[in-house]
Amino acid sequence: MSVLLLSLIPNLSQLLPQWISQFGNLIYIGLFGLIFIETGVVILPFLPGDSLLFLCGSLAALNNQGLNIWLLIGLLSIAAIAGDALNFEIGEHFGNYLMQSQKLSRLIKPNYIKRSQRFFKKHGKPAIFLGRFVPIIRTFIPFTAGISKMRYRDFALYNVLGGLSWVLVALGSGYFFGNIAVVKAHFELIMLAIIAISLLPAAIMGLCNRRGEPIE
Asked: Which residue ranges traverse the bilayer (predicted)?
């Protein structure tokens, strides 16, 4: 399944305009669902969230593509926030069972859980915000927060800030830079660059922690 989902990334620039033409405004429902599932369903961390948001932003900048940037920001922010909230609840109520299940261990890979736990332990509460910008970790960090019985009020604050920031940055980058000729010609490479850049917040946080300046 992961191979199939990852194969969507290089074809998104061709597929999404076709879907918009075919389904019209129903595309908003599909986009909402994809972002919600990527952030809310712990067994599907491979959906191309960063790439999808960037491409949506670039298409919204084109008048003939029929995507409204403000509607995208509103709907997809809600999807991202609601997805993480669901993921937190799954982790809080069913996390230990899911991790101990031999059948589900194939879908919830232990090494991803360990990476997420280390990330959460290292950064504390801000991990909820920072995790938004790290592929794979983005899906597992709210699940891990739920397992750790983090106070929901604290989680909700970082969840809202992180969801809004992630959607705004990814959509905004696509809106303002996605239609530059060199970007359009090297879409796959740009996606890799976005992933690399998305790791910077975690790297900065890690540097602060090493210097003994943890951010609470």
From this structure: 25-47, 67-88, 127-148, 155-177, 189-208
